[in-house]
Amino acid sequence: MKGYRLLGFVTVVALALAMLASCATPTPTPTPVPPTPTPVPPTPTPVPPTPTPKPAVPPPNPEAKSLFRYIEKIDDYTVKFYLNRMDVAFLQKMAFNAFGIASPENVKKFGGGGDLFKNPVGTGPYKFVEWKPEDRIVLERFDGYWGEKAKTKTVVFRVIKEATARFLELQAGTVDGIDNMAPDDIPVAQKDPNIQVFFRPKFNIGYLGINRAHKPFDDVRVRQAVGYAINKKAIVESFYPPTAEVATQFIPPGIFGHSKDVPSFEYDPEKAKKLLAEAGYPKGFKTTLWVMPVSRGYYPVPDKIGEAIQAQLKAVGIDAEIVTYDWGTYLDKVAAGEADLFMLGWMADYADATNFLDVFFGKGADMSFGDPNDFPELLSLLDKGASTLDPVERQKIYDEANKFIFEKAIAIPIVHNSSAIAYRKEWTGIYPDPFSNEALWLVEAPGKDTLIYGRSGDSVGLDCADETDGESFWVCKQVFEQLVAFKPGTTEVIPGLAERWEVSPDGLEWTFYLRKGVKFHDGTDFNADAVIFNFERWWDKANPYHKGHTGDFFYWSYFFGGFKGE
Questions:
Q1: Are 267 and 233 in contact (CB under 8 A)?
Q2: Contact residues for 388 (Cβ-Cβ < 8 A; gap 6+)
Q3: Do residues 167 and 185 touch, judged by C-beta distance below 8 A?
Q4: Which helix (H) or strand (E) holds 306?
Q5: How many helices (H) and strands (E) does the chain have?
Q6: In percent, how much of the chain has pLDDT > 70?
Q7: Sign of the alpha-carbon torsion through 427, 431, 436, 441
Q8: Strand 450-455 to strand 154-159: parallel, antiparallel, or no bridges (unpaired)?
Q9: Per residue in 347-402, pLDDT tens?
Q10: Per residue in 486-536, pLDDT tens?
C-alpha cells in the first residue's frame, strides 16, 4: 500500500507541475538589437589640383642677339611666337625652306643627328625614297598629302656637273629638265623645237669674298685694291648671257633696299697698284683664291671665272694660287673663316634687303669676311633697317649701309645673273622661281610618271634647318613644308601648314592657326607639339636634338640673329 500511495503522490505532483507549466505566462523573446554601424567618413568634395603656373613670357629685349624670346602652345592647333623686336621680313623668313617642319618621331629616332640628314620625313607633296651620293636622289608622290597631289609620281634629281653635258642629255632626252645652263647653250636651246627655256629673276649676287682676319687683308687699302683690280664688266661680257649685269652692291635690282646711287668699284688697275704701295706692298704679295667646284646661277662657269679673276689680280701684283674642295667642305671652310680670297654668291631666300645684308654683315653672319662685330656701326644700321616700317626712311638706312660696305671694301660684288633652266617641250606647270627652287609637284607631261632633272651638284644634306646650299634646299622644298610658303613662281607669302595668322600691332607677337588632319610621311600627326618641337630644336642649343648635320644651324642665326639666351 505504501508503494501505491507514493506512486500516486508523484503522479499528482507531476500533473500539477504540468498544469502550472501550461498556465504560466510565457517569457517574451527579446527583440534583436542591430549592431552599431561603423561610422563612414563623409566623402570629401574633390579639390582640383593646383595648376602649374604658366611661365611668364619674358619682356622684349630689343638689344638681344636673338629675335625670338618665347614660343607658346595655345592649344593643339595654335602656336604663338614672341619676338624681341619688330622684323618687317619675319613672315617672309618663315616661308624659307630651312624651316620646314620635320616629323618629331623621325628626328628622335636618329637622336637629332647621325644619319638624320640622309633620312628626311616631312609633310610635303613628295616623300624621300633613296639617295645615291654624287649620282641621284629619288622622291615619290606622297598619296597621303593633305592638299592637291603631285602631278608626277616620281622625281629624280641627277648630278651632272658640267653644264654642257647637262644640255647634251636634255637634247638626247635622257633627262627632262636641267638647271644653270651655260651661256653659250642658251641660244642653241632657244632654237631647238623640242626644248623650252625659262629665265629666273636676277635675285642673286656673285661676289669675291675677302677675309680681313687674314693679313694683309686687315688693311682696308689692300681690300680696296682688290676691288679696283677686278674687271667686272669683262667677266660679265665673257661668261654670262645678255641678261646678266655688273653688280654695284650686294642687294640685287628689284629687291627692296637696292640703292640707285651707291659708289662702286670701277676697274682701275693703276689705282689698285697705288693703294697696294701705300699699304706697304709695292711689289704685291702671295695669297690664295678659292674657286667653288659647282656651277650656280651667279657663277655658271666658276673655273673659267676664277682663272679670269686670278689673271686680273696677277696684273696688279697679287699672286693668287687657286684652291678648291668638294662643295660641302668648301662651304664649311669658308664659313669658318679659312679662306683668303674666295668666290661665292647668294640666291635670294625672300625679297628683302635683310636677306642679303643681314646674312653677310649682320649679327648672325659667319666668319667668312672676318668677325661681323668689327663694324658695330653697320650692325646698328642693319638692326634699324629691319625694324623700320616707313619704306622711305628704311631705304635711306640701306643707302647708308650700302655705302659703308663699299668704303670698307668688306667684299667685292661682281654680278647679278638671270639663271636659265630648260625642259623638254612636253612638260608643263613650270614656274621659274625667284628663289631658284621650283615647285616640281606642279610639273607634268602626258604619259610620263617620272621627271628626271639634271643639276650641277649633289645635295650636301637633307636635315634642312642645318644645311646652307641650294641643292639641298631644292630637295627640301619638295619634301618639307613651312608654316607659310611662297606662291609658286612669286614672292607672295601664302598659307602653308598654317591656315592663317595674326600679328599684334607692335609686330612682336605672331599667332599661327594650324591645319588639322595633316600627316607626316611616317604616318604621325602634325600639330602644335610638332611645331614647337622643331622650333625649340633649332633655337635652343641646349635642346638634346640640337645636333643636326653640322651642328651650326646657320640659317637660324642668319635670319633670327642668335639662339636662345643670346
A1: yes
A2: 88, 394, 397
A3: yes
A4: helix 302-314
A5: 16, 19
A6: 90
A7: negative
A8: parallel
A9: 999 999 999 999 899 988 899 999 999 999 999 999 999 989 899 999 999 999 99
A10: 999 999 999 999 999 999 999 999 999 999 999 999 999 999 999 999 999
Distance CA 475, CA 455 (A): 12
CB 340 within 8 A of CB 322: no
302-314 vs 232-239: helix crossing angle, rounded to 10: 150
329-335 own/partner pairs: CB under 8 Å, 24+ apart: 330/290, 330/292, 330/293, 331/460, 331/468, 331/469, 332/550, 334/209, 334/290, 334/368, 335/366, 335/367, 335/368, 335/468, 335/552, 335/554
Dihedral of the alpha carbons of 220, 561, 439, 450, in degrees to the nearest 10: 90
Burial 278-293 (b: 16+ CB within 10 A, else e): ebebeebbebbbbbbb
Sequence-distant (≥ 6) Cβ neighbours of residue 301 within 8 angstroms: 163, 182, 183, 239, 295
The average pLDDT across 455-476 equals 95
Q: If DSSP codes are grouped into helix, strand and coil, which group holds residue 414?
A: strand
Q: Are 316 and 268 in contact (CB under 8 A)?
A: no
Per-residue pLDDT reduced to its tens digit, 524-564: 999 999 999 999 999 999 999 999 999 999 899 889 989 99
Q: Which strands form 318-323's sheet, in the order they lie side by side?
A: 245-246, 411-416, 204-210, 341-347, 285-290, 318-323
- Upstream peptide bond of 216 is cis (omega within 30 degrees of 0): yes
What do you get for the CA distance between the two ends of the chain, in Å?
135
d(CA 499, CA 495): 5
Q: 121-159 pLDDT, tens per residue?
A: 999 999 999 999 999 999 999 999 999 999 999 999 999
Q: Give the pTM.
A: 0.80
> Regarding beta strands 341-347 and 204-210, do their DSSP bridges make them parallel or antiparallel, or are they unpaired?
antiparallel
- Give the 3-state secondary structure of residue 242: coil
